[in-house]
Amino acid sequence: MQTHEFKAEIRTESGKGPARRARSAGKVPAVAYGPRMKPVTLLLDAKSLHDFIEHHNYRTNLYTLAVDGSSEFAGKTFKVADLQRHYLDKDVMSVDFAEVEMDQQVVVEVPVFFDGTPAGVKAGGLMQRLARSIKVRCLPRDIPKSIHWDVSGLNTGTTLYLENFTLPETLEAVSVPRTPIIACTIPRTMRGKGAAADEEAAAEGGEEAAEGGEESAES
Q: Which of 11, 13, 127, 181 could covalently link to 18 via disulfide, CB atoms 3.0 to 4.6 Å apart?
């Protein structure tokens, strides 16, 4: 479990106009809420938030909030429930922090990485990543940074689904079992060569059969 602290201040104005002015001043509008608190609107430093997101997976981290002039956040831990980015420059537009109870399971999206070189790739196939993350349920202390799976046994023409992989005992899959995770396909060039070889073999077989027929006719 990784915990990061963000410094914040109470946001006293709401609406699109104040939000735009806050972003122009280098702030990001945010809201924090949970079972033990009413929603509180906040402002975070945009640079600090951006720097953290650039170097960490914000989905698998937990957070504490140090809010000027407020003791309500003391002892509380949060996860990022939602993060909105600008559709062009990808700047963070807003963040939702949801309080987590350390003895209650949470759902998080965890990145997936693959170890080993698939047997199909060694044979000339192409590996296709069909999922870059999956959703799991676990206690906050068991949130992993990432999940690694060995795919060295993957052959060409094969797709592996979530149900084909094993998760640690501390994790429970939330994504559907038939979620496609990775595949190894046969390149078009290989399929073309195979088809051409088959046609050539068939043609040679036809010629041999024809020659055999002529010899039989002559005899």
A: 13
User: What is the predicted pLDDT for the residue at 193?
Assistant: 53
For the whole prediction, is pTM greater than 0.90? no
Q: Average pLDDT, stretch 6-22?
A: 87
Q: Average the pLDDT over 126-143 and give the result.
A: 97
- The verdict on residue 210 lying in a domain is no
CB contact at 8 A, 132 and 57: no
CATH number of domain containing 55:
2.40.240.10
Higher pLDDT, 205 or 111: 111
In the chain, the number of structural domains is: 2
Q: Which domain holds residue 25?
A: 3-100
| Tens digits of residue pLDDT in 172-194 | 999 999 999 999 999 887 766 54
Gap between the Cα atoms of 127 and 124, Å rounded: 10
- Check whether residue 170 and residue 152 sit in a common domain: yes
Q: Are residues 95 and 111 in the same domain?
A: no
CATH number at residue 149: 2.170.120.20
28 burial level (CB within 10 Å; 0-12, 13-18, 19+): buried
Which residue pairs from 91-95 have beta carbons closer than 8 angstroms and sit at least 24 positions apart in sequence? 91/23, 91/46, 91/50, 92/28, 92/46, 92/49, 92/50, 92/53, 93/23, 93/28, 93/29, 94/19, 94/28, 94/29, 94/30, 94/31, 95/28, 95/29, 95/30, 95/31, 95/44, 95/49
Which of the pair, 49 or 188, is modelled with greater confidence?
A: 49
Shared domain check, 72 and 131: no
